[in-house]
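Do me a favour: review this protein, sequence plus C-alpha cells, and tell me how the chain folds. Record follows.
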Amino acid sequence: ATMSDDDYKIETTDAGASATIPMEAGQIKKGGFMMIKGKPCKILSISVSKTGKHGHAKCNFVATDIFTGKKLEDMIPSTHGTTVPIVNRTEWEIIDIDEDGVVTLMDEAGNQKADLNLPAIPEGMDDEIRDAWADGENTVNVTVQAAVGIEQIVAFKKI
C-alpha cells in the first residue's frame, strides 16, 4: 500500500507542476498571469507597499479569474514565491453544436475535439456563438483558453 501512495503523490505533483511555474511575486507584471486562491488569474493592477523599518515590500495584486471574470485580490511579500499558470490559447473551427451546448471543434490539422461546452461566461456569449454559426451556415472560429486542466472558449469570430 505504501508504494502506491507514493506513486500517487508523485503523479499529482507532476500534473500540478506542468500546469504552473514558480515565480517570485516581485517578478510578476501587470497583464501577466498568477494563481490566486487556486484560480488562474490575469493581473489587472499591482501596487507595492513598503512596510515598517525591517519589513519587506508587499505586492498587492488585483486580478480577474481568466475563466469566470471574477475579481480576486492577493497580497504577497515581493520576495516570496508564488505560482504562475501556463496559459495556452488555441484556435478551432466549430463543426457542430448540439442541443445541450456541446461543441465539436476542428483545428487546422484536422484534429477534432468534442469535450467543450459553449461558454457560460460572459453571459449571452453562448447565444451569440449559436447565432453567428447559424446551424452551420457560417464558419465560426473560436479561441480556446487552457490553464490548470481547465479549457474554455473565450472568444469567437465569424469568418
About this structure: The first strand starts at residue 20 and ends at 24. Confidence is low (pLDDT under 50) at residues 1-17. Residues 2-19 form the longest helix (18 residues).
